[in-house]
Amino acid sequence: SAVQLGRGPEGPAEAGRVVAEGNAQPLHVIVVTDMVASTALITRWGDAHAHELLRIHNATIRACLRTHHGTEITHTGDGIEASFSSASNAVACAMAIQQAFAQYNQEHLSHPLQVRIGITAGEPISTEGRLFGSAVHTAFRICARARPGQILVSDVVYQLVAGKDFPFVPRGRVALKGLPGRSRLYAVEWKGEGA
Question: What is the pTM of this model?
Answer without folding.
Answer: 0.80
